[in-house]
Write a structure and sequence with these properties.
The complex is a heterodimer of chains A (275) and B (368). With 275 residues, chain A is mainly alpha-helical. Chain A has one domain. Helices cover 77% and strands 0% of the residues of chain A. In chain A, helix 1 (2-13) crosses helix 7, helix 2 packs antiparallel against helix 3 (65-73) and helix 2 runs parallel beside helix 7 (111-147). Chain B is an alpha/beta fold and 368 residues long. Helices cover 33% and strands 23% of the residues of chain B. Classes of the chains: A mainly alpha (275), B alpha/beta (368).
């Protein structure tokens, strides 16, 4: 197992994917943090001037500075979880794309060990990507808040806890990514489906399901919602668009997705003939 | 070469190369430079029995190197890719695994290596299935596609990725890079490599564990003539150490000068498994002769008793089986027959190979 871990670690470390992902996520989250902080504060001030909260655009206007700070600092887990998910998926799909799965299985024919090693090894790299993404929102968001004369609330222990837990949620997303990649090994298809689901399908589903009492509970168990639940809050919650599970339940739900996908991958892709 | 190597071993290595055909200095340097047998003792492959003290050549337990394929079958839908295939591959020899494209060579290799599951039959190496061998890449070096390289990785990093499970250290990675002549490209990304360089890197990967058994799928593809010459000598050198070497190819002439044994398959079935000498004996000699005097030619063939063996391509040109040029030439001279052409036209090994593997249903590849 140690040898398999070293092999998998070298596989990720010797290509540029992991640090490129971290870099792009940092940049994206920096910009999103600035935009969100600016628009939420502007909306709050406009509502205070007119004296009536509006509910136009994206949910209700947030009037509480603490809720604004939380919404901004959890952007990475609400919008950016695609990055660790892709990092995880690529660790499997890359092997099929470049057909390195052949030498991989020649060196280690025990396929469960190969898959397990991939799950373990993606964690440290996902930590780097998650820290980069969360730093982006915190740096961009806090800088904008303080420029606009609002409190950054970075000293608040509840906010600190949220920031830390959103990093944990992003790391779990990398495990979901490994599982997803092992189910859908076509690299292009995997990235397209991940993008479509996380950026379009799930947000839409959450809004739709939340409209009805009977289906609202289902929306809480969607993977994106589970990730936000780990952090404890998100833009969706602050805007009154959705409720979340308890953090522990969110953790179990997201882990459940990862385990289920990995098991499906183990008994489909990694059971079949290779090549 | 390992610095600690004794002088005796150095000269033994030189002696070993004396019988090889003339080599360019470059090829000789590549063959002699790295000691491909130096691996940590704890990682030596199961068949390793140390070195012969007088020659310095590693010795292996032959039974660990025998490949046995018994009744192997694999279908893909309606296609019998491998159909009740039985053969064995002996250690200490280079075996050519031959067949036209689509004959089932790569599928057979995949079944032997546990990458695919056979529908029936077994394939064992040293008596065990690949998946049953602990750390199999130490014992068996296999390269199925030279394309199995991540283009974003450097050559050295490609080797370092697989090194931990084979027990090779960074030094060993550099050694095998030197063996295949890629030292100067060690830090270049494989995405920019030519086909030949990818082949060399794939071969280097198989050598990492100093394996007793080598299975190489079309290793000469994309190599330049110098590379092919080097590969031939290198494979012969490895087999000379008692290792088992199986090389697949769709062209017999490519491996004709390298192999001791051939295993020929077509449409998933075994056609012939024998020493190369056995195949050569099957090739029939023949003479192609032509004369402007058609009647004289026919008369000579009848008079010499070649009537049953001769085949007239045109009235003035005939191919005579089991004849040789001196006899036909002398017979013509004795009758004063003018010859415009006299040449050996026997069934070459390549023609024989084509005949053996031809699809009886294909209109294109009938027996000539």
């Amino acid at each position: 197992m140690t040898a398999a871990l070293r092999t998998e670690f070298r596989k990720v470390a010797t290509t540029r994917v992991w640090w490129l992902t971290a870099l792009v996520m940092f940049g994206y989250m920096l910009v999103m943090g600035m935009i969100m902080a600016f628009s939420l504060v502007s909306g709050m001030r406009a509502a205070e001037e007119t004296g009536q909260p509006t509910s136009g655009g994206f949910g209700e206007t947030i009037l509480d500075p603490a809720a604004i700070a939380t919404s901004v600092y959890t952007l990475a887990v609400a919008l950016g979880y695609i990055f660790p998910a892709i990092l995880g998926a690529l660790s499997v799909t890359g092997e099929f794309r470049h057909r390195t799965i052949t030498p991989t299985l020649l060196a280690e024919p025990r396929r469960t060990i190969v898959l397990t090693a991939k799950l373990v090894v993606v964690v440290p790299f996902a930590v780097v990507v998650a820290v980069a993404g969360v730093s982006g929102t915190v740096v961009g968001g806090a800088a904008t808040l303080s420029l606009m004369g609002e409190p950054t609330l970075l000293g608040d222990s509840a906010i600190q806890r949220t920031i830390l837990l959103s990093t944990v949620a992003l790391v779990l997303w990398a495990l979901v990514g490994v599982g997803f990649g092992s189910v859908l090994t076509n690299q292009v298809a995997a990235i397209v489906v991940l993008l479509a689901f996380t950026q379009f399908v799930e947000p839409l589903l959450r809004l739709l399901l939340a409209q009805f009492d009977a289906t609202e509970v289902v929306s809480k168990f969607l993977p994106g919602a589970a990730g936000e639940a780990i952090a404890g809050s998100s833009l969706y919650v602050s805007s009154g668009l959705a409720d979340l599970l308890a953090p522990w339940a969110g953790t179990l739900t997201l882990l459940g997705y990862a385990v289920a996908l990995v098991l499906i991958g183990r008994f489909t892709t990694f059971r079949r003939d290779i090549g | 070469m390992n610095l600690e190597s004794s002088k005796g071993e150095m000269s033994a290595m030189r002696l070993l190369f004396l019988h090889l055909p003339a080599q360019t200095d470059k090829v000789r340097a590549q063959l002699e430079a790295p000691d491909t047998t130096r691996v940590p003792s704890s990682w030596r492959c199961p068949g390793w029995q140390g070195r012969d003290v007088t020659t310095g050549v590693p010795t292996f337990a032959p039974e660990e190197g025998t490949i046995d394929v018994r009744g192997l079958s694999k279908r893909f839908g309606a296609v019998r890719a491998v159909d009740d295939l039985t053969f064995s591959v002996e250690p200490g020899r280079v075996t050519g695994f031959l067949g036209p494209n689509g004959a089932g060579k790569t599928t057979t290799l995949r079944l032997m290596l546990g990458l695919a599951t056979p529908d029936a039959g077994t394939a064992t190496i040293g008596g065990r299935r690949y998946a049953e061998i602990p750390r199999p890449a130490r014992h068996i070096g296999a390269a199925l596609e030279s394309a199995s390289i991540n283009p974003g990785r450097t050559a050295r990093d490609h080797l370092r990725v697989y090194a931990p499970q084979i027990g090779a250290d960074d030094e060993r990675c550099d050694e095998v890079l030197a063996t295949v002549g890629l030292t100067e490209s060690a830090d270049r990304r494989a995405g920019g490599f030519s086909m030949g360089m990818r082949q060399r890197l794939a071969l280097a990967t198989t050598l990492l564990g100093d394996p007793q058994v080598l299975l190489l799928d079309e290793p000469a593809n994309g190599l330049d003539p110098e590379g092919i010459a080097w590969l031939r000598q290198f494979l012969r050198y490895l087999a000379g150490q008692g290792r088992t070497v199986l090389v697949s190819s769709h062209v017999l002439s490519e491996v004709e000068q390298t192999v001791d044994d051939v295993v020929i398959i077509a449409r998933g079935r075994l056609v012939k498994a024998c020493p190369l000498a056995g195949l050569e004996a099957m090739a029939r000699p023949a003479v192609r002769v032509s004369s402007p005097d058609a009647e004289g030619l026919a008369a000579m063939i009848t008079a010499e008793g070649w009537g049953q063996l001769a085949d007239f391509v045109t009235p003035t040109t005939a191919v005579i089986l089991d004849a040789d040029c001196p006899r036909v030439g002398e017979a013509a001279a004795a009758r004063g027959l003018t010859l415009h052409e006299l040449a050996a036209a026997g069934t070459s090994l390549e023609t024989l190979f084509l005949q053996l593997t031809a699809d009886p249903d294909s209109p294109m590849l009938g027996a000539p």
